[in-house]
Fold this protein.
Amino acid sequence: MSLHATVALVRHSGIPLTSQIQRFIRQEVTEGALHPGTRLPSSRRLADDLGVSRSVVVEAYGQLVAEGYLEAVQGAGTQVVRHLERAAPAPPVPSLLDDAHGARRDPPVRWNLHPGGGGVPGFPRREWLACYQRALNAADPAALGYPPLAGDARLRVELARCLGRMCGVRSTPEQVMVTAGFAQTLGLLAASLPQLGIGSLGIENPGHPGQRRFVRESGLRPVPLPVDGEGLVVEALAASGVRAVLVTPAHQFPTGATLSGPRREALVRWAREVDGLIIEDDYDRGLWYDRGAGRPPALQRLAPDRVVYAGTSSKSLAPGLRLGWLAAPVPLLDGLLRARARQDLGTDVLTQLAFAEFLRGGAYDRHLRRLNSLCRHRHDALREAVRRHLPGAAVVGPAAGLHAYVTLPRHTDEAALVAGALRRSVLLCGAASHHARPGGGAPALVVGHAHLPRTGAEQAVREVAAVLGGA
């Protein structure tokens, strides 16, 4: 433990060495360089480091303890006191994904129904730890160096296998790239598209508000395109003049609509006709528990040369892993890798190796089965609570993912409902925030349900019903 590197003692001056040490530590504490709870070197260690008598340091520490800057803690040595007053911290820099999944600072409430407000339930801690341990034990020194920009080869092999088996994605490990979540995937594409002469990106409306802002601030012009019960309206896309589009075809965010078969074929035809590119955001693949129909395969399999398939572990494991992937047409890979080289030097290799082990050993499949069962029960509880307590409202779309789309009666004042629910300690997310323009759609709620216990869904919806009843 060292402190001496920043202590500048002037040995031939009229100021005693004890006073110089006191002044230095006092200033570092006052200006915030030494934080509350920071442990300082022992008096013997600091004296040796500074080349002074131990009594000099003991006296300096003693005076600072008397002044209330330091404290002597039994078994922990001397440290900066924990209760010092601090200036108010600067407000946090707004995230590019504020008001989107999981990147907000939600107010404390009893029932948080924001999508992503409760995170992903049931993280498989024991299985993940075991996979991480096995990966770490097996890692040779070369594996602990800088990873390849496209990701560790072992994970890319496992991802190609998993995506082909679960999603029908047609790719090779060489076409798979590991990223730090979908945000980085979108950032890499935003940096690469201008090199193809593409300056605008079609986005679904309603859609992800954070992505819309992210696209704009990445230098592309976002072009909102309408969505209906069959997904993206391809006729509007064709009329827009854009050559690239971002879609969520399997489980549209936030409405839950699935892109119909005819729309899928039309979308692929559009891409071929305009020499365009489709970015398929399959954000919650693996979370499908609808009893009526199976989840459709990836759109990418219809046109591997025109679709960039993108996925993430954020909805199935945890956003904090910052682990995503893409499968891209071969001609795009070089531009994506060049863009990656300008951003960072790759994704945490140990997490990659652990996830490869998680996939290879079947732990991911087992986790998804448990998570789907849990989400099904909680989705059913929400649907039943809405049916019982909110006449005229309905949960629409397939039973999938971590959120549900709840349409409200036409006369509902969505903004007033959201505000009234907050007063009753229920945090709601209105659909209006997902539209590119205010008043662009019928009143609805985007409800995160996967983290709610069955009784929680019932109680939260009853509070919402009380707001509607008092309107």
User: Anything to note?
Assistant: Residues 289 and 373 are 7 Å apart (CA to CA). Residues 363-389 form the longest helix (27 residues). The chain has 14 helices and 15 strands. The chain has three domains: 4-80, 111-122+366-469, 125-361.
